[in-house]
Amino acid sequence: MKSENMQRQMRKGVIEFCVLSILRKNEAYPSEIIEQMQEADFQLLEGTLYPLLTRLKNGGLINYRWEESPSGPPRKYFSITAEGESFYQQLLQTWNELNLSVNKIVANSEK
Amino acid sequence: MNKVFTINLGGRLIPIEEPAYEYLKNYIEQLKLAFQSLPEASEIIEDIKERIAELFERKIKPGHVAIVLENVKEVEAIIGLPKDIAEEADLDIEQETYHEENSNTQQDYEAFQEKNFSTKKLTASKTDKVLGGVAGGIARYFNIDPTIVRVLFLLTLGFNGLGLLVYVILWIALPVSDDQPTQWIKRIYRDVNHKVIGGVCSGIAKYFNINVVLVRLIALFPLIIALIPVITFTNAGRGFSTIGWMFSLPTMTIIYIVLWIAIPAPKTSVQQKEMDDSNNRADNYATVIKQMHTPPPFEGTNNYKTKTQKGKSYGWIFIVIIAAFLIFPILSLLFSWPVKIGVISSISYINPSLHAFFFILLPLIFISLIPIYFIIYLVVRLIRQKRFESNYWVGLNVFLLILFLFALMIFSYSMMQYALFT
């Protein structure tokens, strides 16, 4: 069993949560989302983001509009919908609970 | 030494070496295969291509001429292999469709070369089109810029709309080619560094590798000829016959303006180089236009304004001349009406009702309907706040604008005739 796979498994559950979290603050185009995740040292294959955004959009959690870019082709600016916001709140709650539980367990084992 | 192509990747022009291009092509094919079962797969692929192009653009720095194989591999690691992406994004895709080996690349590449160089067929282009893709198809067949073919079609409209007839026939007759992955052409650009007004003439000169003075003379020829009687104060109306005036002078001016809008200025150093290297045709700077994206978007008015401001050195002289040209003939018509009456009566005598239809009613219809279209267009654009994605709208707008000006010209001329005649 490779630890790499497991690490990826751990990360992948929270990618959508991160994306929603980024979008609820400000609308952003995909490259911006990637940059923000990289700034936070979140490791992610960039190719993952695009099918994921499409899935979130089809699920009605996010939306996008076109905007001209000062350089290069026009960009898709994604923003969160009301549905996405309530979805995010649910995820946030789960994350906080999970965070707490995992930390407790880890802290116990480190003693 | 490797060949360098310039590819249009997600709306950006990227210079890329041949092995790197092959690798990239294969990588994108793999992504396509992997995502094909997803909803909106093609859109996802387009977005990824745009991202790849963005990453490439950062890698092209002074000293780096083109993207090399290593760059593509770096980007592949950043974007991820299809199976890893599928894993990470939790996609439900069929793993069997995904080919790990690159073995078919060479075959693909040869097939693609063959398609472009040996089995040439005249077809209408599905991807490079404004109306029916006829001009795009002809341009691909002859390896020239579609803009040139389009302008030639426009020019022929002056000959009783002959070009339009030819266009419609070709539109009906030519098969639409579905599968044209690539196209090798040198693009025409405006040479804004050597411009007088908009750099159109010097851009054309560079494209055809001829002397710029020659191009300018051709562009100015109707003006020069028509100015002679004005300058010499001989009978101003005699210098231009009605038809000569209507077609030669405004046509050149209109064509210049159309070209000014239609031909892009080089935006990147690559495009600049492509324009300057007028001797290097398909050998070195082949433009591989993938069906990845529509060509770079139409320049907005902002850019347009800054450009005219920069080039005001001699431009105003030409603007004064053109203005003079538009004013003098009208004045000459007003003051030389006794001479004109003979001509006018002979035209209307042939068939008065037909004459009235073509010279008054039809232009009037265009004059009243086209502004309505533009108002609707602008309102829709304003509401949607979204760029119309295809070239189609730009082409249609330019066409309607020209039609409007043309109709206005004919209508005002007819009105003048009738006012004088009655």
Can you walk me through this structure?
The complex is a heterodimer of chains A (111) and B (422). Chain A contains 4 helices and 2 strands, in the order H-H-H-E-E-H. Chain A has helices at 3-25, 30-39, 46-58, 82-110; strands at 62-67, 75-80. Chain A is globular and about 55 Å long. Chain B starts with a strand and ends with a helix. In chain B, helix 16 runs antiparallel to helix 17. Classes of the chains: A mainly alpha (111), B mainly alpha (422). The interface between A and B is medium-sized, with 26 and 35 residues.
Strand content of chain B: under 5%
Structural class assignment of chain A: mainly alpha
The percentage helix of chain A is 55-70%
Q: Fraction of residues of chain B in helices?
A: 55-70%
Q: H/E series of chain B, N to C? A: EEHHHHHEHHHEHHHHEHHHHH
Please state how the strands of the largest beta sheet of chain A are arranged side by side.
1-2
Largest sheet of chain B: 3 strands, mixed
Which chains have the largest interface? A-B, 26 and 35 residues
- Based on secondary structure, the structural category of chain B is mainly alpha
Euclidean distance between termini CA atoms of chain A: 27 Å
Low-confidence stretches of chain B: 94-106, 112-118, 179-184, 236-244, 278-314
Give the topology.
The complex is a heterodimer of chains A (111) and B (422).
Chain A: H1 3-25, H2 30-39, H3 46-58, E1 62-67, E2 75-80, H4 82-110
Antiparallel strand pairs in A: 1-2
Chain B: E1 4-9, E2 12-17, H1 18-35, H2 41-59, H3 69-79, H4 82-88, H5 104-117, E3 124-125, H6 134-142, H7 146-156, H8 162-173, E4 176-177, H9 200-208, H10 212-232, H11 242-262, H12 269-276, E5 286-288, H13 301-310, H14 312-335, H15 337-350, H16 352-384, H17 391-421
Parallel strand pairs in B: 1-5, 3-4
Antiparallel strand pairs in B: 1-2
Helix pairs in contact in B: 1-2, 1-3, 1-5, 2-3, 6-7, 7-8, 7-11, 9-10, 10-11, 10-14, 11-14, 15-16, 16-17
